[in-house]
Amino acid sequence: MRRIRACWRLLRVFLHILAGLWIAAVRLPRLQPAGQSAQVQVWSLALLGHIGIALEVRGQPPLLGPVLLVANHISWLDIPVMHAARHCRFVSKSDIRDWPLVGTLATAAGTLYIERRSRRDAMRVVHLMRDALLAGEVLAVFPEGTTGDGLSVLPFHANLLQAALSADAPAQPVGLRFIDKASGQPSLAPSYVGDDTLLGSIWRTLCAPPMVAVVHYGAPEQAAGRDRRAWSEQLRGKVEGLRRG
Question: Is 0.85 topped by the overall pTM?
């Protein structure tokens, strides 16, 4: 039954991605930014439904920018989960741009790409982020720089917080977790860490019983004189608390 359920979900997801490609090519270019954001949010929420994941939003998502969302990173699902809760522009590793189908959708959703191995490219992206924040946009980053096991939060890299400092924009901590719908216990099915392969993680998620993705927003805050390292460490503690809550 698990395999049958997974195959049915896979078919629905594939068709939904094809519909998303059509939306990205035909509909999004004709919409104003607010309409584009709404379309991405609706599409992402439907994607979660096809996979068997319900969305639970706690706290208050940002109504307007500028704000930099700072979240823990568990899975390849984190981006659509956060898009479903509140559309935002992500900063993601440049590899995603070249992923089949997914890269096209990520680009259409306004993703900013960074070459993580290049300090020069990091500065370029920080400048783009600063300009986007000054323009009143909602951005999102995963300061861990990689996916964790979902049971703890890895140390944060502080570099991208410089954009919020330069734009004098607030950062808002966000805690993510996946829980089994029946038991309420943490689910590791969507995790993508260690020896996991992307395809293996996707198949495990499709085979899993119904889950709930919890997006817990904390209060936005200004740097208030803190440098990016001190601010990053304090934000990490708040993200950890939200993830547990």
Answer: yes
